[in-house]
Amino acid sequence: MKSLEEVILGILDSGQPENVKELVQRVQEQTDAKLEDIEKTVKSLHRKGLVSLDEPTHHKEPFFSFLSLPKGRWFWIVIGTALLSFLSILFIPETGTPLSYVRYIFAFIFVAFLPGYCLTETLFPIEDSLDIIERLTFSIGLSFAVTALVGLFLSFTPPKLTLGTALPSLGFVVIFLAVVALIRKYVKQ
Question: Most exposed: 46, 85, 166, 167, by fewest CB within 10 Å?
Answer without folding.
Answer: 46
